[in-house]
Amino acid sequence: MMTVNLRGGPVALMLGLCLFAFGGQAVAAEDDSVCLQCHGAQSGRLGDPVPAWESSVHAGNGVSCHDCHGGDPTDMAMAMSPERGFLGVPEYEEVPDFCGRCHVGVKDDYLASQHGKALASGGPQCVVCHDNHAVQRASLDLINEQDCSRCHDYGRAAEIRASMETTDDRISLLENELPPLHRVGIDVKGFEGEIFSLRNEFHRLFHTVDVEQVKRETDRFGTQLDEISGRVEGVKTDLAERKIWGGVATVLLIVAGILSWLLRRTYHDQE
Questions:
Q1: Would you say 107 and 100 are in contact if contact means Cβ atoms under 8 Å apart?
Q2: Where are the domains of the chain?
Q3: What tens digit of pLDDT does each residue of 201-234 get?
Q4: Residue 177 contacts by C-beta under 8 Å, 6 or more apart in sequence?
């Protein structure tokens, strides 16, 4: 993911410095790519991407430099070789296709939007809103007056955020209901997968930057949430009933034990 200028002598010089600094050997953690090792040893613009990436959702999900920029993360000398698939830094208008290799649906929504249609004339692309290396987890916090008003009035973005907030909160609340179920032995992986997919699809809505479409689609997602929530409530009800019957069984066993003890005592007293 590192921003690197592939042209001319600076690259060769930088590689030479890296090879000298590391003696041709990887001295960082075994799971560090040579990209992180090399750039992590640099200062200024060549080193800045590393701490930015370390704080990102990409790092948290194991997406590293070569996953975006290509190249060979195991070979210091060939890390930025086009022969090893190195892509380098995309031009401004290439960014949506660059990010869209993974975020396919988001890319389609973006390109069909007013933002996407304005790309050739300098309209915002992925990096403008999401940053390039310090990419944060998608949330409605990314829709805010400070960032949106860099380019235009916040009004329409505020409408979209307001339309999405209730559903987004419901998704988070539903997600928070799963860990307690997991702790008592309920398999919640299916629910987790459904909610994860629902959230990702729901957050795609903002890229349309179409207020009316967001409002229509938000209602549809609300219906899907009702269905998932109903099934989660069914599991919770079943669990509660099991606890009740378990408690009843425990009480009956205790009562049976007491009665058995009393009967034995009465029998011994009569003897």
A1: yes
A2: 9-84, 90-136
A3: 999 888 999 999 998 888 899 999 999 999 999 9
A4: 232, 236
